[in-house]
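Subject: design request, 412 residues
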């Protein structure tokens, strides 16, 4: 987390006269107890902060644990952090003595893979990054474990007790490259199974006028599988503008403008058709609402039925996905107080009307485990159920509900 400012760019480096206290590091994730950690450092240890980011919290936390007259054991450094931090954190660390470690948080919220080939060691959030470098023996670092490289030797050590993991399901649904494998489960196959499951639930009449169109690019595997199961042609009815990035992670001020120019509908494919539009997820609905309007107006489609390879996003993420407020989300505006995780027909009908759709269907929460080939109990499903795998996450969602119309960190 941070801001669009070069000072927030990683890696961070801390200079010091003692070599084990001079270090650089980078991390992927989000500390859910950021406010608590910051206040503790400010009030009890007289720290000063120049940035509003948990990366700086991590830098000071590392520095504090490297104090003393002798270099500390790296496993002990991470063990201490693990008892203090609440949230997602994959960390890579290097000090001036040449000691290095790569660590994954005890819940394994974010993926982390590593490989060793000859004298070359590499680690990455996605296995495809390593396979593209030529690594053939790629391993998954287990939650609560760390790879330590010291004096030319590599070893894997556990720094936190084993517990039930909480892998972020959204990595399979949206974030990860389709060629990656996360904790033994193929991203491509997970998306393909999601499409197959949506096809099994389909209740619309299928005829020769039907066509399946994926929203590029992450929905393609689900769309192809959906089309195959129903015997419907799958076509590239939308052309993506390669100069527009992922609107999901763009600021509110630019998201709508980007959404309008992100895709070009093809009338030669869409005109007069009953379109099954396959989407990976609906977070804010900015892109989808604009896209449906263009498919109808410019593409001249007869009907638009959206099928979503993800359950409704009804709650914020406190672990690193860029959706930190309830107010910015689409689904909560239609969610009843007693919502159990799967939308009712009435809820779906109201959402479809809002988006100008002929019909709308989501993947069920209960389908996530089978589609991802991961035990559902081992997934973080906080954003689709409102129940989180950490104590701080559950405290923050209560605060977010009180401040649901607030921008920024709604839980502060």
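Subject: RE: design request

Done. Sequence follows.
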């Amino acid at each position: 987390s941070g801001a669009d400012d070069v000072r927030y760019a990683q890696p961070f480096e801390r200079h010091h006269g003692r070599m084990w206290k001079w270090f650089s590091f980078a991390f992927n994730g989000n500390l859910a107890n950021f406010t608590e950690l910051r206040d503790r450092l400010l009030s009890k240890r007289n720290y000063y902060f120049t940035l509003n980011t948990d990366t700086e919290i991590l830098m000071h936390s590392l520095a504090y644990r490297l104090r003393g007259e002798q270099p500390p054991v790296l496993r002990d450094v991470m063990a201490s952090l693990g008892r203090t931090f609440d949230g997602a954190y994959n960390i890579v660390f290097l000090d001036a003595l040449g000691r290095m470690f790569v660590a994954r948080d005890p819940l394994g919220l974010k993926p982390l893979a590593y490989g060793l080939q000859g004298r070359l060691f590499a680690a990455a959030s996605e296995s495809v990054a390593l396979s593209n470098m030529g690594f053939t023996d790629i391993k998954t670092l287990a939650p609560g474990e760390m790879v330590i490289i010291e004096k030319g030797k590599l070893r894997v050590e556990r720094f936190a007790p084993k517990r039930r993991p909480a892998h972020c399901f959204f990595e399979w649904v949206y974030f990860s490259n389709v060629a990656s494998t996360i904790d033994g489960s193929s991203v491509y196959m997970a998306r393909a199974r999601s499409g197959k499951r949506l096809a099994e639930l389909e209740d619309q009449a299928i005829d020769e006028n039907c066509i399946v169109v994926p929203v590029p690019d992450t929905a393609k595997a689900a769309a192809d599988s959906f089309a195959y199961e129903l015997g419907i042609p799958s076509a590239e009815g939308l052309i993506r503008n390669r100069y527009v990035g992922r609107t999901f992670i763009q600021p509110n001020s630019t998201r709508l403008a980007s959404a309008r120019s992100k895709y070009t509908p093809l009338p030669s494919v869409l005109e007069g058709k009953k379109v099954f539009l396959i989407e990976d997820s609906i977070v804010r609905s900015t892109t989808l609402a604009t896209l449906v309007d263009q498919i109808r107006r410019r593409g001249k489609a007869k009907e638009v039925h959206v099928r979503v390879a993800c359950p409704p996003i009804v709650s914020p993420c406190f672990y690193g996905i860029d959706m930190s407020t309830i107010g910015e989300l689409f689904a909560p505006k239609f969610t009843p107080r007693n919502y159990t995780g799967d939308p009712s027909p009435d809820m779906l009908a109201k959402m479809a009307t809002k988006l100008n759709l002929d019909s709308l269907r989501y993947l069920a929460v209960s389908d996530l485990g089978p589609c991802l080939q991961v035990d559902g109990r081992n997934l973080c499903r906080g954003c689709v159920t409102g129940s989180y795998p950490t104590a701080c996450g559950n405290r923050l969602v209560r605060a977010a509900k009180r401040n649901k119309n607030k921008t920024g960190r709604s839980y502060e």
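Residues 78 and 159 are 6 Å apart (CA to CA).
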